[in-house]
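Collaborator request, handled under Task 6.
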Amino acid sequence: MKKVLVLGSGLVARPLVRHLLDKGHQLVIATLLVDRAEEMIAGHPNGKALLFDVQDEARLASLVAESDLAVSLLPFTYHPMVARLCIAHRKPMVTTSYVSPAMKQLDESARAAGVTILNEMGVDPGFDHMSAMRVIDGVRRRGGRIVSFRSYCGGLPAPEANDNPFGYKFSWAPRGVLLAGRNSALYLLDGRRTEVPADRLFRDMHILPIEGLGDFEAYPNRDSISYIDIYGLAGIQTMYRGTLRNMGWCDCMFNFGKLGLLSLEETAVAGKKYVDFMRSLAGCGISEDAQGAIATRLCIPRYSLPILSLEWLGMFSQREFHVNRIAPLDALGELMFEKLAFRPGERDLLVLHHDFRVELPDGRREHTVAQMIGYGVPFGDSSMSRTVALPAAIGVDLILKDRIRTPGVLRPTTPEIYNPVLDELAALDIASREKTETF
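Structure tokens returned to the collaborator:
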């Protein structure tokens, strides 16, 4: 029986915990939310919840040393610290987060120690890589060349649960969703390198129709060009990775950013009401109409969607702050989390859409669309939690069974990793469906 250390017990942890317990592994969930961890374990004899503060590095080192593998579901900033301890104690590690520059710097030491540090084992990043690489490697085996690759992913409420002005509900960390709106982006379109500054992210939007679901807003996701090397697509003309949202999201988020609501700079709010906070952003007096002043500041109509959405959230309400200082992003996020939470029994929707344009040696061309569309289980696991947690859980099991042996800081872009993971996910009803046209 292998002992797995799981760090964190957030919104997506439960499917990983249950899968690994069902596989016969022993789990220690180290978290500040012990009650939530115990609910996930549900009395299983091989599971244990442990109160733990990640700031206690000495205790973390001890927990790593006592385990056969560590899974970090902590905020991404903590992953390099966990990885360093795993390398020092020669223990493999799995995360669902992007490979950060700090994590990438640990590749050489991980290789030297013979330690596997497997990252990006979620849905985006994760399943997107694996499903894309299976198609890309298949094209290569036929001597073909990918000339264009577009990939989109979005976690959304199912249509029957889409009942708010934002067209969105939180199926993962709310702060992470808003922080992503502060990112700049970079992509390649028809051979032209396009850089998008953070303040224009939500203006670089186009409409993507998904058959059977309707139209979605799509905007660029971070640095797409770096994936040309990661996927081995030298010479490609279009490389684009995007995020999907329901209609109206981009206009709201653009104007929220323009107003300063995505700022991380804390401001004094002791004794203030939310409407006072909004007046301070608008630079208007206490007797002025806050909604009108914000609309004037943003140069948009008083009854436009961004203003009405802020009003619906309660940003113009008489509600008082209960802290002395807060960042505007967190003030917005707290109300969004309250109003945009899934209610019991509601389903979420996960959409992953790949679009490949291929040139073959005989002169023919192919257009392949690969889609994974998943719905959450009413009163059960969300689609987001399943598609994030289960790839990681399968990766853990494969490492512990010596089926993934490559040392270093890894992504799931090699057949050694993506083939067994995708095969097992398909057995769990998580799979992409491909449609190819040849012309």
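The cover message to the collaborator said: "The chain has three domains: 3-118, 127-249+343-380+433-438, 252-339. The chain has 16 helices and 18 strands. Please let us know whether this matches your experimental observations."
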